[in-house]
Amino acid sequence: MPPKQKRTYPSWSMFPEHHVSVSEELAKSGLHYQFNEDDDEDSCSQDYDTNIMGRFRCRRGNCKTQGWSSKRIAITIRRYQSTSYNVRVYHQRCKSCNGLSRPELDVQSYVDRITYRLKKWNGIPVETPVYSGQSKAPHEEDLCEGCKNGRCTQSGGPVATFPDYW
Question: What is the extent of the structural domain holding 40?
Fold first, then answer.
């Protein structure tokens, strides 16, 4: 019998189902973008690393963790020449069992962050929103797939400070 192959899981996901909300918000400023399902860092014209909020649940059946919330889910926003964009949302690992978990997004923070960046790239004046809190827990780089991919603003690279992480 051949050896069992280890299953690999992606370290990030895209959430095109939230494009309608992003599109509606952008339309208020006269912008019209399509969601680009083909994530290609070589053909994008601009990209920006930031973070959003959300919640994780460990998917491993034998793990006792109930889940965790995060105010620092790493994302990469990419803009393409043809007025399209996409967003990589990086996963996190469970502190208890090291299992990889896909986030359940705080949709409002996702929409706000994407529309802010696209407006800014289009020269539309935007005010930096006031951030009302800071995560009490330290950022754990070894559990953050954004850090492992060199895309997290909290990793060893340039560290974003609040509220300038928009």
Answer: 12-128+135-148
